[in-house]
Design brief:
- The protein is mostly beta strands.
- It contains no helices and 20 strands.
- 0% of the residues lie in helices and 49% in strands.
- The strands form 6 sheets. Strands 1-2-3-4 form a 4-stranded antiparallel sheet, with no helix packed on it. Strands 6-7-8-10 form a 4-stranded antiparallel sheet, with no helix packed on it.
Length: 256
Amino acid sequence: MFTSCTLTSVSVSTAAFYGLNFATFGGTQYAYLAGYDSGGGGGVLFKCTINSSTGDLTSCATAASGTPPWNGNSVSLLQDIVFQTLNGVPYAYISDNAHGGGSGAAIYQCQMQSDGGINGSTCAATSQLSGSSSPAKMAIVSMGGTLYNYFGQTNAGGVAGNCAIDNATGDFTACHFSSATPLASNDAIAIAEVSGQSIAYFADSDGSHYPYYCPLNGSSSDYTIDASNCVQLTTGGLGGLDLRGVSGGVIGFIAN
């Protein structure tokens, strides 16, 4: 339970943020904020230093150097950022739903720098993902010895996807999509193992329904989301969600 909450001492004008993640580089903790410039600039991604004593965010600046693909693209809307190290090289994966699908939607793979910045010149859209997708929040997990990037979609009629990651290049080798799930828009996702079964949880921050969960098709070769066996929860809020292992099981946190 939170004992107190305060606003951070930094702000970025005209920016609306949808994704938040944390990483440590060179002994310094950073918060990464993905979103949209409502002033017409398109996708934005910021890196903020975290004060180790107070937890406050300081020294926020554009995270990517050079010219990443979302710069100046008025339809880009960055939804999330996740990190994965492959063969000792740290990468960021950044989802851009291009305002809910259509031309330009992508998941970018970018190489991280030692100072926690992103080398914008290395950012490229992963292959195998259709431009008509609308990827939102992501989760990278290992299934059957293969890394997968799982993601909800904001404008796909309840479809969720998972893409296998090549351990050498970091690019996607194949992407798979579920049939329709209970919510039309899946913009939050979290994955956990419960009683030996891998489960994906989803929420829709724009909807009017409770979150739900679906098992993964563990018997298949691609570990897709089993939309035919999704279960709607009868409690909880809407918006972002996350899962954390605690003594005795897994606890879910859901924004309302």
